[in-house]
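sorry for the late reply, my laptop died twice this morning and i had to redo everyting from scratch. anyway the thing you sent over, i finally got around to it. pasting the sequence first so we're on the same page, its 199 residues, then the predicted structure underneath. double check i copied it right bc i was rushing
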Amino acid sequence: MSMILIIYWKKLKIKWLFTLFFLLNLSFIYAQDTLLISPVSENKKIKIDSADFLDSSKIKLPPNPKKSALLSLILPGAGQIYNGRWWKTPFVYAAIGGSIAYLQMNQSRYNRFKTALELELAKKPHEFTGKINSAEALRNLRNKYDKNTQTSYIGVVVVYGIVAVEAFVDAHLQNFDISDDLSIKLKVPGIQFSYTFQN
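ok and here's the structure:
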């Protein structure tokens, strides 16, 4: 009989220890989420005004991604300035200006070789007389720069689009939460679970 009591006592002791351990852990988790305030006597009252802590005029809202992209489409670089990334504007204009300059160079060469080919076929002197006397060579060069011109038009549109996409993505990333809070919060009707990772 005494042996049965000893076994029963050990099982009971383990259950109590487990219950005590569980309750201590719950109180520890609860204590992490609560704000400890020192006791105040009834004579002293604490008045906390939220306006002391939060001045809405000083809060800077993150940029709106759609507005940023729209501004960038209307005027390249405006979306970057709206996002507060004004230093990107010279790069925007360098990219667009470079693509337009490349387009104009190809367009100019296409026109020169086109005119030279027409004059060569009419047996008249042209800009490349003595250098290129073959109509076939002039036709190949004209076709090459015509193809480059068409590709350059696509390039200008792509660069213009990339500028708007960059402004849109940058505005989205400014809204991205990069805080050190790695807590998991799960809300299911009737159940609420929260777990915080500690360093």
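The CA atoms of residues 65 and 168 lie 5 Å apart.
thats about all i looked at so far, will dig more tmrw
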